[in-house]
Structures are given as C-alpha cells and as structure tokens.
Amino acid sequence: MAVLPLLVYPDERLKQISQPVSGVDEALRTFILDLEETMRAGPGGVGIAAPQVGNFVRIAIVDVSGKPKTQSHGRLVLINPEILEWDGMAVGREGCMSVPDFTGNVIRAERIKVQALDEQGKLHTYEMNGYEARAVQHEVDHLDGLLFLDRLVSRRNDLFARKVYKK
Ligand SMILES: [Zn+2]
Q1: Is the pTM value of this prediction over 0.70?
Q2: CA of 25 to the centre of ligand 1 (A)
Q3: Which end of the chain is least crowded, N or C, by CB within 10 Å?
Q4: Pick from 148, 166, 109, 155: which is nearest to 14 by CA?
Q5: In angstroms, rounded to a whole number, what is the distance separating the alpha carbons of residues 138 and 132?
C-alpha cells in the first residue's frame, strides 16, 4: 500500500467531474487500499475521494467511526455513489485534506439515503444522519468537482483560517 500525493486547492483539477466506475477488479481494489491509507495518513481523515489523488473516478471512502458519539456504518467504500434522498438541513464546520489552510461552515442535509457499490461490486443502500451524512455529501461533492469552499454561505463570515494543521 502507498500514501498517494494529494491535489491541493487551488489546483484546477479539483474542479474536474469524475467518471463512473465500469467494473470492480483487483487493480481497483488495490487503488482503494492506497486511497484509504492516504485518508488515514491525513490529520482528521474521515473521508477521501479518488479525484483528490488525481484519479477521476467516482470512488469515495468515509469512516467516521473514530469520532465519539457519532452514529456510523464504520468503514464505507462508496463506488458510484448516488444520493437518493435528502432530509433536513444543518450548518456544520468542515475541513478538507485538499484545503489544508481553511475550515468553513457549510449547510448540508441532516439525513440522506445513499446507494453505492462496495469494493466487491455489491450494491448497498445506506440511511445515515449527522456527521456521517455530512461526510458523504462532502465526498460526493468532490466527485462533481465541488469543494466545501463552493458551498459557503458567505466567504466573509463562514471561512476560517487554520492556524495550525496538526500533522
Ligand atoms: Zn474534501
């Protein structure tokens, strides 16, 4: 396994729309392991999307199980994820491995239903809420070339410089 180099804002490639995965094979599973290692190597790494390492395919990994008092499905590999339902709205602070110098307040749905393939090619539907739902919405945005910076209500009021980014 390997930690892959991250694209960092304002790299224009982060705006690229990623393509659906056509088939799950061993090479893809190896890439997913590298992607996961890259996520876990980052500070506070609760999610990552393939385009963040320059591979423009619709794959994201989310794992919020390390966050206390948070409902979670554990480690989730989401291939070709589709958010089918959104419900409620909440403001929350987000960070991103590709935007190391800032955090921001973003409005997201509180509850979502998401459908995705796992790394065996099996289709799952997950209902989730709170922080996990937020993380999935953030990662799916990456697949569509969007960063949390694009969703700030106000750049003046909702963007915060990170003084220290813990390594
Ligand atoms: Zn991100």
Answers
A1: yes
A2: 25
A3: C
A4: 148
A5: 10
